[in-house]
Amino acid sequence: MFIGYFGMGFAVKKLVNKPSLGTLFFATQFVDLLWPLFLIFGFEQVLIEKGNTAVTPLNFIYYPFTHSLIADIIWALLFWIVYYVIRKNVKISSGLGF
């Protein structure tokens, strides 16, 4: 699963040189990093059922905010906006030319 995230980060880095590779890795894993928080706060639901699958005992019940196409598009846009604002402010305030 995670090899696909890193593969996407490497592929985008080949096309666009501006964001760091670490930023691209974080961006590709962003919703999976939000998912446990959404579970803790009850926005999404999962049941633990022994033997549910060969890989994981998790039975995914309700997770529309982190793993639906529309939600992922919205998260990607929000991530890009935050990245753009931070990058612009760092460039202006420090003069480092990020």
Can you walk me through this structure?
With 98 residues, this protein is mainly alpha-helical. The chain has one domain (2-94). The protein has helices at residues 2-15, 21-40, 69-94, and strands at residues 45-48, 58-62. Strands 1-2 form a two-stranded antiparallel sheet. Helix 1 runs antiparallel to helix 2 (21-40). The longest helix has 26 residues, at 69-94. The chain is globular, with a radius of gyration of 17 Å. The two termini are 31 Å apart. The mean pLDDT is 87.
Summarize the structure.
With about 100 residues, this protein is mainly alpha-helical. The protein is built from three helices and two strands; from the N terminus they run ααββα.
What are the key terms here?
3 helices, 61% helix, globular, 98 residues, two-stranded antiparallel ribbon, mainly alpha
| Average pLDDT level | 87
How many strand units?
2
Helix content: 55-70%
Question: For the report, how would you describe the main beta sheet?
Answer: 2 strands, antiparallel
- Classify the secondary structure makeup into a structural class: mainly alpha
Helical run tally: 3
Lateral strand order in the biggest sheet:
1-2
Query: pLDDT below 50 for ≥5 consecutive residues: which ranges?
Result: none
Percentage of residues in DSSP E strands: 5-15%
- Please state the oligomeric state of the protein chains shown: single chain
Shape: globular
- Calculate the terminal CA-CA distance, rounded to whole Å: 31 Å
The count of domains is 1
Radius of gyration: 17 Å
Spell the H/E element sequence.
Answer: HHEEH
